[in-house]
Every structure is written in structure tokens, then in C-alpha cells.
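Protocol step 4 of 5: obtain the predicted structure for the target chain.
Materials: sequence only (see below). No template structures provided, no constraints applied. The aim of this step is simply to have a reference model before the mutagenesis design in step 5. Sequence pasted as it appears in the construct record:
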Amino acid sequence: MRSCLLNILLVSNLACQSWAIYCYQCGDGKSNGSCQEDIAGMAKDHEMHKQNDTTSKVEDFVYRKKCADSEKACMIERIEINGVVVAYIRDCSDGINFSINASRFQTISPDRNVTTCTYVEAKFFTCLSLCDKDLCNGPQSDSNTSSTQKAAALWLTIVITAILPRLL
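Step 4 output (C-alpha cells):
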């Protein structure tokens, strides 16, 4: 009986464990840095992640990071002074603590995939984006387009190229 109870507790504990979210992680201290501009590198990481290939190792990814269990969201922070980007950060987030803790940021929810901006101390203009899906804080690869959507687009192209010359 005791062994059976222990097994039930062990299984229920495993069932209750949450799966970690993956986010892009990088940072720039200026405008036009790789964290803002290397869309191809992030898309490559996204494609490898979507393939769920067991041959890919952690070190194969340039930007992808597995978040801690306490971090349930991905975020992008952009901080500007006088219109110049002084910090651009993509990372995991607990949804509470940020580089600049403005009261406005405490009310946004990651499940809404929102961005909000505010002035802090009339000095910093900062924007925060939160989302709660894997790699949602960056570019998405073409693999996000379903095969149905791709097939529909192909058929539409075929129909247009077949019919349009006859109409002209």
C-alpha cells in the first residue's frame, strides 16, 4: 500500500511539472546591433527549434535559450534616451522584474502578447513586449505557415496565371 501511494505521488509530481519555455536571448547597447538586425540568425534558430531535431545541440543555437521554470514569458525591452536606443534586450522574463521597473509594466499579461511604452523619470523612453509562446520574442520562420495555407496560396497562383491571360 505504501509503495503504491509513493508511486502515485511520484507520477502526479511528474505530471504537474511545467515545461520550460524557450526565448531568444541577446542584447545591444546601440541602434542597429545584431539583437535587432540579425533576423536571419534568429530565423535559423527558430527553424532548428521547430524541427525538434535531436541532433541539434544547445551550442548550435545562437540566440535560443531555455528559460528557468520561474520565467514563464519571453520579452523584448527597448530603452531610449533622446530618441537613441541605449539598450535592446530579448530574454526570458518572470513578468515582474525588468531592467526599468515602471509601474505601467506591472499590469501587462504575457498571454496577451502585448507591447506597452512609457517615460520613466522624464529621462528614459522604454517599451516592453511580453508573450508566452516559444520564441515569440523574435522573428518567426516560414515553417509557421501551415501546409494548408501554402497549398491555398499555390492554387490561387495557378488559377490566377491560368485565367488572367484569357481575360486580357
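Step 4 remarks: Residues 1-17, 143-161 have pLDDT under 50 and may be disordered. The radius of gyration is 22 Å.
Proceed to step 5.
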